[in-house]
Amino acid sequence: MESRWRRESRANEIREREERVAKVRAEADRLQHRLDTLYLDKIEGRVTSEFHDRVAATWREERDRCVRDLESLAFAEDDVIDDGVALVDFARTAHHRFETLPISSKRRALNFVLSNCSFANGELVTTFRKPFDLLEKIECPDGGCTPPERGSAPESAKMAP
Questions:
Q1: Phi, then psi, of 124 in degrees rounded to 5
Q2: CA-to-CA distance for 68 and 90, rounded, in angstroms?
Q3: Which residues form a coiled coil (predicted)?
Q4: pTM above 0.85, yes or no
Q5: Which one has a higher pLDDT value, 108 or 35?
Q6: Tens digit of each residue's pLDDT (9 = 90 or more) over 74-105
């Protein structure tokens, strides 16, 4: 289950993206309104064709930049979703993948995730490296369990002497 801090972070990302989209969309609309008004001014003879063409070209470029920004913001959302799906899929299969690794690869993986491990009083005591220390703070789906104390191993990791 997604932790509270991750949900809040994700909510902030979504809010910031929506604010950016609204700002860029408003800018594109403002430029389109200017173009429309400039065209009417040209038709009614208030501005010359040369002036219209020069100014309209600049405003069209700016409007097109806004449209590209909106498209990239939409693609960025898709990338975030794809990354999230890939991460969930990886997490779902991580245990099985770890079990099938040779001992040397398991050792490298554990050294990457853990530091300062020790075996004392029949228990394996672990310390996670950053950012894996966040694993200790993950909320349980049913909300009924608590994270392990710092440095203690989960029940499945405890070993007899």
A1: -85, 120
A2: 32
A3: 14-41
A4: no
A5: 35
A6: 876 666 666 677 777 777 788 888 889 899 88
